[in-house]
């Protein structure tokens, strides 16, 4: 499918990052969860958000009582359960 779409772009620039991200996600999803990428799309979107948050916070030093709440802290303590990312979400699919 991917190569078929690319044939229509002959001589044009192709943005391959999103194509390879979707392909990689499909392979991981089928291998780990036994379902297609589209079925697990919400989980992959949450994993992407979590990766961005972790990368932004990886070098921050936090002293208890002396730091402001970050977006990661707020997402982790969100009372709205659907926005909370847990390991169970990732494993259970």
TrEMBL record:
Superkingdom per UniProt: Eukaryota
Location of this chain's protein in the cell: Membrane
InterPro entries the UniProt entry points to: Cyt_P450_sf, Cytochrome_P450_Monooxygen
Sorted UniProt keywords: Heme, Iron, Membrane, Metal-binding, Monooxygenase, Oxidoreductase, Transmembrane, Transmembrane helix
Single GO molecular function: monooxygenase activity
Any one Gene Ontology cellular component term annotated for this protein: membrane
Family: Belongs to the cytochrome P450 family.
Record PANTHER family: CYTOCHROME P450 FAMILY MEMBER, CYTOCHROME P450-RELATED
Protein name as catalogued: Cytochrome P450
Originating species: Rhododendron simsii
């Amino acid at each position: 499918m991917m190569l078929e779409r690319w044939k229509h772009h002959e001589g044009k620039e192709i943005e391959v990052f999103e194509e390879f991200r979707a392909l990689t996600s499909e392979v991981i999803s089928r291998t780990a969860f036994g379902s297609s990428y589209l079925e697990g799309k919400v989980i992959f979107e949450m994993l992407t958000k979590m990766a961005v948050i972790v990368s932004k916070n990886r070098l921050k030093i936090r002293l208890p009582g002396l730091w402001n709440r970050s977006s990661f802290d707020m997402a982790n303590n969100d009372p709205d359960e659907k926005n909370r990312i847990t390991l169970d979400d990732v494993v259970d699919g």
